[in-house]
Predict the structure.
Amino acid sequence: MRSVDDDLTARARIRNAALELFGAEGVNRVSLRAVAARAGVSHALVLHHFGTKEGLRKECDAYVISLVRGGPEADLEDTAGLTAMLEAGAPVRLYLGRAFLDGTPEAAALFDEIVEASGRWLEQGVGEGWAHPSEDPRARAAIYVTWLLAPLAFGAHLSRVLGVPDLHDMDTMMRYSRAAIEIFTNGVFADDRALTAWDAVRKERRSR
């Protein structure tokens, strides 16, 4: 007779196998039988625990997003959740990147939540003097979060350009995240010619 502990262990194995396969290949390209084979369980046991592939996907979403949020008591503004995501295993990060690209409702809600928290954090920085004010604070917060999360979605391209076999290696992550912080801190352009040109285009369009 199967014990409760055995069921919980099997459920976790199935979820972890799905995280790995869904993240690497996409939900639509992976069958429940493939997940069962990777987890070392029967197809019937996968159906017993999750019912359908959609049920398994929702379980994966909930698990990954709980890691990013850092638990029910965590505040995304303390960066604990984003740190947990960076320190999580590669399958978790790959899955989250895939979820953002697929636009699942859970991932969309998480993205919105991170943008709101980042917006409050940046405005706090403006008040305290360690962040510059912005003409459009909400757009800045959204772009900031998108930039931070971009390696999750463009991992294969970033890995190729940087010439590294594993983008999820911690040393590699420290390399490209440092480059991002350098941009945020020091900027890229040495003068305002690009911004002036952009403002000129906007002014011309508004005058039409």
Q: What stands out?
A: The chain has a mean pLDDT of 83. The radius of gyration is 21 Å. Residues 4-153 form a domain with the Tetracycline Repressor; domain 2 fold (CATH 1.10.357.10).
